[in-house]
Amino acid sequence: MCAKATMDEFEALLKESFEIDTPNEGSVVKGTVIAIEAGQAIIDVGYKMEGRVDLKEFADPGEAPEIAVGDAVEVFLDRVENARGEAVISRDKARREEAWDRLEKAYADEARVEGAIFGRVKGGFTVDLGGAVAFLPGSQVDVRPVRDAGPLMGLKQPFQILKMDRRRGNIVVSRRAILEESRAEQRAEVIGKLAEGDAVDGVVKNITEYGAFVDLGGVDGLLHVTDMAWRRVNHPSEILSIGETIKVQVIKINKETHRISLGMKQLQDDPWNSVEAKFPLESVHTGRVTNITDYGAFVELEPGVEGLVHVSEMSWTKKNVHPGKIVSTSQEVEVMVLEIDTAKRRVSLGLKQTMRNPWELFSESHPEGTEVEGEVKNITEFGLFIGLPGDIDGMVHLSDLSWDQRGEEAIQEYRKGDVVKAVVTEVDVDKERISLSIKALGGDKFAEATGSVKRGSIITVGVTAIEDGGIEVEYEGMKSFIRRSDLSRDRAEQRPERFQVGDKVDVRVTNIDSKTRRLGLSIKAREIAEEREAVEQFGSSDSGASLGDILGAALKGDE
Questions:
Q1: How far is Cα 56 from Cα 51, in angstroms, rounded to an integer?
Q2: How many other CB atoms sit within 10 Å of the CB of residue 435?
Q3: Alpha-carbon gap, residue 287 to 302, rounded angstroms
Q4: Domain total for the chain?
Q5: Which DSSP state fits 439?
Q6: Same domain? 327 vs 253
Q7: Which of 19, 357, 385, 507 could be cross-linked to 521 through a Cys-Cys bond (beta carbons 3.0 to 4.6 Å apart)?
Q8: What's the rounded Cα separation, in Å, for the pair 10 and 280?
Q9: DSSP letter string over 202-246?
Q10: What's the chain's Rg over C-alpha atoms?
Q11: In 3-state terms, what secondary structure has residue 90?
Q12: Which residues cross the membrane (predicted)?
């Protein structure tokens, strides 16, 4: 009975000894380096157990291992005994377990952790956080995109843990968050020393299409392209280069966003202060075309002072033409100052005002009555447009095409491109209008033919045609028509057929119509006038003499 009790106690003590002395697999244990051989460290973890660990597990990324005999280390016990009777241990796993504990605490406290970038992976980099490997996204490396991450590799530096999952072994860190935080502190300190209006030195860090970023000593300010110079700057690279030190003025500071607006031209004299003195109204200056738009062209009078030549002020003759067809960029042109608005910083210029008005020149060299020659540029329903010297046009109205034909008929004889002659009849400089006449080339035949003829005159005409309603006659080349009722005072003699083509007939002029260019003629009126004249000369109706006697005496007197 006593022996049995003693045996039970021994078993219990032995079991308790095993439970105490043998560590649990999967836990971190302390050990001592007892030897280093074949690239491995032999470690005594106690409990009469030894294990081997590769020396590289004792080295940080990119560094040589620091381990010596006698060093006390912590290792992770995978298994108590392998096939060779050795413990399976790992320094990496021990460091990882230790690191996770430390990182979880730092993540909870939102504290920074130290690590080193040691590899590149898709979308970013790998970071060693003292035993645990974290992912650093490419967007979290720096505040601006990093083209070459070589200088950052292997460098111990602080990181901020953004996300971690121990079960999955995922850790995401950010270097950018650290930089932004320190940058914000630095910006606040620098901005606190700046005031709007201060002139400071800065270094050009970056150039964009809209401006340049200037480092003011830890804080960047934006120098917009419109604030670089008083003159037009197409691209900042025209006057700035990266790394250049420049003097700028602080224009505006946004205390909330810590944004700083800078200017260079504010440190120079404003050329607009002397515009009115340098460029008085109606003065002519030479400038350079800097920009062309649909509505005109901008001309630089001097650096910082530009004026607009509106499309309506570009040419006397070229209407509704794009400015780019009249001037070209960088062309030197002469312009006249038309208007100045210093408040709006605008100057209105004129290009055509530096040249003589072509209608004035034409009026001086081609007074009314001058004969001109030109090409038919256009044919419209109301007349012809003829090209004239000075790149201007004159118009021949339908009514000025022909003396004998209707305008609608006469215009059918002309084609675009025909070279014709005409006479200047009117020049209206204000309305920029020139009136021409083709029919006036040979003079006014009607006026010449009827110049000595008056109403009531007796003239001799030739019969040119016989018609039912009367006869057509001609006088000095001018055609007229005598109606049947005007062929005789005697109704029986009002017969057109009693006349023949070629007959010469004396007629009385009853009307002169210069508009229709027709003479009103009548044989009847001539006969009545002769009868009245005979009565007045040889007697009266109550003298007892018969009309036959009077006419007989008159005819006898004529003989």
A1: 15
A2: 18
A3: 7
A4: 6
A5: G
A6: no
A7: 507
A8: 121
A9: EEEEEE-SSEEEEESSSSEEEEEGGGS-SS--S-GGGT--TT-EE
A10: 57
A11: strand
A12: none
Predicted local distance difference test score (pLDDT) of residue 17: 54
Question: What whole-number distance in Å separates Cα of residue 215 and Cα of residue 223?
Answer: 10
- Please, are residues 102 and 74 in contact by the beta-carbon 8 Å criterion? no
Q: Mean pLDDT over residues 527-533, rounded?
A: 85
The reply to whether 119 falls in a domain is yes
Query: What tens digit of pLDDT does each residue of 114-145 get?
Result: 889 888 889 899 988 877 889 999 888 887 77
Does a structural domain hold residue 554? Answer: no
DSSP 335-357: EEEEEEETTTTEEEEESGGGS--
3-state secondary structure of 451: coil
Q: Given a cut of 80, is residue 19 above it in pLDDT?
A: no
pLDDT band at 449 (very low <50, low <70, confident <90, very high): low
Q: Is 490 left (phi over 0), alpha (psi -120 to 50) or beta?
A: beta
- The boundaries of the domain holding residue 509 are 449-537
- CB of 551 within 8 A of CB of 515? no
Question: Does residue 34 have a pLDDT over 60?
Answer: yes
Report CA 452 to chain centroid distance, whole Å.
70
Q: Do residues 234 and 284 share a domain?
A: no
| Sole residue written with tokens 């027709």 | 518
Residue 444 lies in a domain: no
pLDDT tens digits for range 314-364: 888 887 889 998 899 889 999 999 999 888 888 999 998 888 888 888 888
Strands 305-310 and 346-350: parallel
Write out the H or E segment, with its range, that includes residue 72: strand 72-79
What per-residue confidence (pLDDT) applies to 337?
92
What angle (nearest 5°) sits at the alpha carbon of residue 27, between those of residues 21 and 31? Answer: 65
Residue 110, Cα to own-chain centre: how many angstroms? Answer: 52
Q: How confident is the model at residue 105 (pLDDT cuts 50, 70, 90)?
A: confident
Same domain as 159, residue 102:
no
Q: What is the largest CA-CA distance in the chain?
A: 210
In the DSSP assignment, the letter for residue 87 is B
Contact yes or no for 463/405 (Cβ under 8 A): no
